[in-house]
Amino acid sequence: MDIFGMMENSSHEQVIFCSNKEANLKCIIAVHDTTLGPALGGTRMFNYKNVDEALEDSLRLSRAMTYKSAIAGLNFGGGKAVIIGDSATQKTEMLFRTFGKFVDGLGGRYIAAEDVGTDVRDMEYVRMETKYVTGISKAIGGSGDPTPVTAYGVYVGMKACAHEKWGSDSLKGRKIAVQGAGQVARHLCEYLYNEGADIYITDVEEDKVKYILDIVKAESVKPEEIYEIDAAIFSPCALGSVINDKTIPRFKFEIIAGGANNQLENEMKHGRILMEKDILYAPDYVVNSGGLINVANELEGYRQDRAMKQAEGIYNIVKQVLKKSKQENIPTNVASDKIAEERLENISSIRNIYSGASSFSGRLGELTHR
Ligand code: NAD
């Protein structure tokens, strides 16, 4: 494995391998880019087949966090940690506290948060060993469940697309197909229902659909049927790669805006196909950045109203992305990448200006400003 070559290809600053036999810990912390601030990103626990797979995942995910933070206007860099192991059977207090020690050793270059395979309880163990962790429960001063804020960001992002497409951001009477009936979808459906949208919902677990149907009026459809519902908007809120060669020909949708990560199976190819078919795609990492906004807020003393207000800003960010896409005739996902890269470049040039003692604030232990 050519690790330095891989790091150079994706412009990674630092990759740390951590091991502790007693705690059965094998983990990789990838710090992609700290131009905007300390690298903030989730800690994933997954039964990777081998180290190569874990490394690739950590590099891919940490890079995505740099873009998400940059486009959301946050002053954080991109990072991600992956713990190799089965989250159903191998989680222990010792594992997460040992991981916390390694995170602490990085002195704030990486700030952990929950992710696939980890939860608030695990982060509380990490918190016992380091202050560089976020996403802990409200009971001990954290931000708790991020999903209401994530869903709100998806909702306002969807409205921005509606405004672009139809000249009004009202979703009243619009048919909306929601894939997944999990945490994000549940809150999203509440926003949509309150606005009078016609909701179609699906999940591989029927109980989850039932739970939502008890809260809002919606029509349940089978998982495979969701791709060909005659709806104006598709909202993927379950899993990645659902926009691909097989699904796109079935779409009658005019807009796609959902909470799931990595919705395009192939970023370049499928982003372009959507553009050619005049399907307006709201880049996933833009509209689902409410989750990151929520945990970022925790580091400044959490207030949900402030996090919601910030998530509301996703409306204007989506508008900006759509404008650039139109002006430059490029797919929306390419436009958002460009805006994120421009912000990184701009902020990096500001950092070159010496402004006295405050230039050294990072060395004095500030978490979010340098
Ligand atoms: P969740 O696990 O609560 O919900 C996902 C749901 O999708 C589950 O109910 C699952 O049964 C269902 N599902 C899985 N495969 C399916 C399929 N083939 N068809 C239909 N349904 C299927 O997760 P969540 O927290 O609601 O997150 C949803 C998505 O949004 C995930 O991709 C997640 O990575 C992403 N996301 C979440 C947040 C957050 O704040 N939770 C933030 C950013 C991004």
Task: Walk me through what this model shows.
The protein has 370 residues and is α/β, with parallel strands linked by helices. It folds into 2 domains: 138 residues, 3-Layer(aba) Sandwich (Rossmann fold), CATH 3.40.50; 189 residues, 3-Layer(aba) Sandwich (Rossmann fold). 42% of the residues lie in helices and 16% in strands. It has 13 helices and 11 strands. The strands form 2 sheets. The chain has a 6-stranded parallel beta sheet with strand order 8-7-6-9-10-11, with helices on both faces. The chain has a 5-stranded mixed beta sheet with strand order 1-2-4-3-5, sandwiched between helices. Helix 2 links the parallel strand 3 and strand 4. Helix 10 packs antiparallel against helix 11. The longest helix is centred in the first third of the chain and has 21 residues. The two termini are 34 Å apart. About 2% of the residues have low confidence. The structure holds nicotinamide-adenine-dinucleotide. The site of nicotinamide-adenine-dinucleotide has 24 residues, from helix 5 and helix 6.
Helix count? 13
- The CATH homologous superfamily of the largest domain is termed NAD(P)-binding Rossmann-like Domain
Total discrete domains: 2
For the residues shown, what is the average pLDDT? 94
Secondary-structure element order, as H and E? HEEEHEHEHHEHEHEEEHEHHHHH
Count of extended strands: 11
Strand content is: 15-25%
Terminal Cα span: 34 Å
Question: What is the compact description of this entry?
Answer:
42% of the residues lie in helices and 16% in strands.
How do the strands and helices of this protein lay out in sequence?
Layout: H1 3-9, E1 14-20, E2 25-33, E3 39-46, H2 51-71, E4 77-84, H3 93-105, E5 110-114, H4 120-127, H5 147-166, E6 175-179, H6 183-194, E7 198-202, H7 206-215, E8 218-220, E9 233-236, E10 255-256, H8 267-276, E11 280-281, H9 284-287, H10 290-298, H11 304-312, H12 314-328, H13 332-350
Parallel strand pairs: 3-4, 3-5, 6-7, 6-9, 7-8, 9-10, 10-11
Antiparallel strand pairs: 1-2, 2-4
Helix pairs in contact: 2-13, 3-4, 5-6, 5-10, 5-11, 5-12, 10-11, 12-13
Bound molecules: nicotinamide-adenine-dinucleotide (NAD).
Nicotinamide-adenine-dinucleotide (NAD) binds at residues 146-147, 150, 179-185, 202-205, 208, 223, 237-239, 259-261, 288, 291.
